[in-house]
Design goal:
Number of strands of chain B: 0
Largest sheet of chain B: none
Shape of chain B: elongated
Order of helices and strands of chain A: HHHHHEEHHHHHHHHH
Largest interface: A-B, 63 and 48 residues
Strand content of chain B: under 5%
Distance between the termini of chain B: 57 Å
Structural class of chain B: mainly alpha
Structural class of chain A: mainly alpha
Radius of gyration of chain B: 24 Å
Strand order of the largest sheet of chain A: 1-2
Shape of chain A: globular
Strand content of chain A: under 5%
Number of helices of chain B: 11
Distance between the termini of chain A: 8 Å
Oligomer: heterodimer
Chain lengths: ~325, ~300
């Protein structure tokens, strides 16, 4: 188990290396000069010249790559001229808002999604199961930025129940319970959008996993022994089906971050996704590359954690 | 020292005959398979409904010049609410929303088919060859696939488009070239089982060289689940194009559903009609693709269920 953990963690290295190389190649493929791509739009000429020296952009390509990787390894993701601050600082400041939004939407989505998926599989095949399938396929077809706009239209514009954008009110209390309520009210709509976007994934995963397990021999055995269908379902099928479903969910976190990016853009939620959008508008390439790198790292780390947790929780799994 | 094993001429001729007979049998089986597939697909009401939705979008896009009441770029009176003469209203620049939606279907379909076809071609070949060859090549390739599959794709695509430009053909190529690993992964898994089958072993024994075996025997017989995955990829391409255009990264020379949303998003309060109808258009196309994809998957493998691409 420990050897497996070490091996999984070591696997981060080639992936991050690959992503760094992609960034490096893009800087060189960009029209114009790599130094101005590294600087982003609006940087002064002296800064671009300084970058040219710092990154050794007059040296051979392979040496440049070495310098670039060295810079990244020191935790230096570059400097954003739009914010007049280092990219790391800007991202670290935005990260908590994204994580808050992701947790607030994913925990209910996972709980409700697995329940619905299990319920649907319990009644497979039936009208109820078809209905759940139809509803989840329809939810798949809703673009998250559009459901976000509709939520704003209904709950912020027509009903005036909730704020349409941002994270705090101007007149909000700066601490205590009032602050929490204020943030929660701002988060309600974006979290709902992200919840509706993720829900069908968890439903479909759980449903497929439970249906798969229900065909196993041990289920037939349990039925033959004479356990009631409920006992067979809850004690034998569901327990065995949930782990793989949750694991696949943990491994596919990048779709949640993609949804968060679009949600944050629609609702002006000050997280990493909104930062990416602002980076697009301002042609702030260091920020774009930094967000890409940090998101990839997060996806990787969560993937490894779920994998290890799975190996710990399921005694049948042995990794060698 | 043992004598080298040399097949007699009759043995080779017999193998050749067997190979030819097997190929003929395979062709017939495939024809029967296709007919059975079509019959079982059309037996599912949801799948047929999906096909109808796709047909509506495709017909509107194909006949756009005949159906669209206005030139989608023409500037009329701005921010007109739905009614006469602008059925779905006009946007902040005065462009007719209905005409933009009808024309915008072309961009979405170009992405659906272009990106998915490119991803299919690259994924199938790139998955089949290492899977067939095996050994170190396959090991290295599998590592590469795993690496590529964990990368947050939308972030990568945004980065590429922001840095290198948003020309529609270029973005379709970018999407196709970032989507293929999931096809390759499925194809590779297919190849690993197919290459052990009798007809492939017979072809190897008959002395057919690897490339013809891969393209004539292995790929056609392993294609089905990759095709099912392709419908998901089409949906992903449509959704991603809309997302990019919504973020302002669309091709400015094209009309697309995402760009209508982008133009209308700051007018949600005063002119909500601009954002409502393009969203419904995107949903129609996506729902059609998902229903057809689900139908294909159910026929091919009733135990599989679709996830999100």
């Amino acid at each position: 188990m420990r050897r497996y953990a070490v091996r999984r963690v070591v696997q981060i290295v080639p992936v991050m290396l690959f992503i760094a190389i992609v960034n490096f190649l893009l800087i060189h493929l960009a029209p114009g000069d790599p130094a101005s791509a590294l600087a982003g739009e609006g940087a002064p000429q002296e800064f671009i010249e300084a970058l040219r020296v710092d990154y050794g952009l007059d040296k051979p390509l392979i040496e440049q790559l070495g310098t670039y990787l060295g810079t990244l390894l020191r935790g230096d993701l570059g400097f954003s001229f739009a914010y007049r601050r280092s990219v790391v600082e800007v991202i670290v400041e935005r990260l908590p808002a994204t994580l808050l939004l992701v947790f607030a939407s994913q925990i209910p989505a996972i709980v409700l999604g697995t329940l619905l998926g299990a319920y649907s599989a319990r009644h497979y095949p039936s009208k109820i199961d078809n209905l759940v399938t139809a509803v989840s396929l329809s939810l798949y077809a809703v673009p998250i930025f559009w459901s976000g706009l509709l939520l704003i239209l209904v709950f912020a514009v027509w009903l005036r129940w909730l704020p349409a954008s941002g994270m705090f009110s101007l007149a909000s209390p700066s601490e205590g319970f009032g602050r929490v309520v204020d943030v929660a009210r701002h988060m309600a709509l974006p979290a709902t959008a992200l919840f509706l976007y993720s829900l069908p994934t968890y439903v479909r995963l759980t449903r497929a996993s439970v249906i798969e397990v229900m065909r196993e021999d041990f289920i037939t055995t349990a039925r033959a022994i004479g356990y009631s269908e409920n006992v067979v379902f809850f004690r034998h099928a569901l327990r065995n089906a949930l782990l793989p479903a949750v694991t696949v969910a943990g491994l596919s976190l990048s779709f949640v971050f993609a949804g968060a990016l679009l949600t944050e853009t629609v609702f002006g939620w000050p997280g990493m996704g909104r930062l990416m959008y602002e980076g697009v508008l301002k042609r702030d390439y260091p920020v774009l590359m930094g967000v890409f790198l940090v998101t990839s790292a997060l996806v990787l780390i969560v993937g490894i954690l779920t994998d290890l947790l799975y190996a710990r929780l399921d005694p049948r799994v042995s990794y060698e | 020292m043992s004598a080298p094993i040399v097949a007699s001429d009759e043995a080779v001729a017999r193998l050749d005959d067997e190979h030819a007979a097997a190929m003929e049998g395979l062709r017939r089986a495939r024809a029967v398979g296709v007919r059975a597939f079509v019959a079982r697909f059309f037996a599912q009401p949801f799948a047929v409904a999906g096909l109808v939705l796709l047909g509506i979008v495709a017909a509107a896009a194909a006949f756009a010049p005949l159906i669209a009441p206005y030139d989608p770029f023409a500037l009329n009176r701005t921010l007109q609410p739905p009614g006469q003469p602008f059925w779905l209203g006009t946007d902040p620049l005065g462009r007719d929303v209905l005409s933009q939606i009808i024309w915008g279907g072309r961009v979405s379909l170009a992405f659906a088919f272009g990106a998915a076809a490119l991803s299919l071609a690259v994924g199938v070949v790139a998955g089949a060859i290492p899977g067939y060859v095996g050994g170190v090549v396959d090991d290295i390739f599998s590592r590469f696939l795993e690496t590529f599959l964990v990368i947050p794709r939308l972030f990568l695509i945004i980065l590429i488009v922001a840095l290198l430009g948003s020309n529609i053909l270029f973005v379709i190529a970018v999407m196709g070239l970032t989507m293929w690993p999931s096809n390759a992964k499925i194809m590779r898994a297919q190849v690993l089982t197919i290459k052990k089958r009798g007809y492939v072993q017979a072809a190897i024994a008959a002395g057919v060289s690897p490339l013809p075996i891969i393209f004539r025997h292995v790929i056609p017989n392993g294609l089905a689940p990759v095709i099912a995955n392709s419908t998901l990829q089409m949906a992903y391409a449509v959704l991603t194009e809309a997302g990019l255009s919504f973020l302002g990264l669309g091709d400015q020379n094209q009309i697309s559903w995402g760009q209508i949303l982008n133009a209308g998003q700051s007018y949600v309060r005063s002119a909500p009609w601009i954002v409502i109808s393009p969203g419904l258009a995107i949903m129609t196309l996506l729902l059609g693709l998902h229903l057809v994809g689900d139908g294909v998957t159910r026929v091919l493998n009733p135990r599989l269920s679709l996830g999100r691409e």
